[in-house]
Write a structure and sequence with these properties.
The protein has about 180 residues and is mainly beta. The chain contains 1 helix and 11 strands. About 10% of the residues lie in helices and about 40% in strands. A hairpin with a 2-residue loop joins strand 10 and strand 11.
Length: about 180
Amino acid sequence: MSLRSKLVLATGSIVLSVLALTGCAAGADTPAAPAGGSAALGVASNLTAAAKPDIRAGVHGGEERVVFDFSSLPNVDGLRVMSHELNEVAPVWGPSAEPVEGMTGKSFIHIRLEIADPARTTAGPVQFGQSLARSAVVNDNSHGTGELTIGVSEGVDYEVLVEGDKVIINMAQGPLGR
């Protein structure tokens, strides 16, 4: 086999391996590889989607609630709220100070916390159909601290609770009644 033939064969093998690992099909009729499974060409893929915090909202009694659930992250070891405030300053992405596109609300609840997350995971923004809670994002998570932001339709009375790997924010138009 000539040197040129060996190079073409090696290049072809590399291209097929990359296609298989990324889930791209060799042809239009070949199915893509399932996540974490083996590809159509028989090459196993170890690529999985990165875990993200779950951000959800709902109504609890006469109050609205937003939950940031970090339990799906494998290396998070403890959360502690350092501070929180309600103001009209829209969130930005960490030190870049780029605005977080897709955040809605007239006011924003900013929650700063200590979070042991070596992966520095962000999530969102997520839109909600609530009357108060409009959107939420994990917008700054680095060097052991993080920021969670909730866009709200108006000024609210709120409380921030930590339960295990969850940060729970209860809010109401009037006093929370605690």
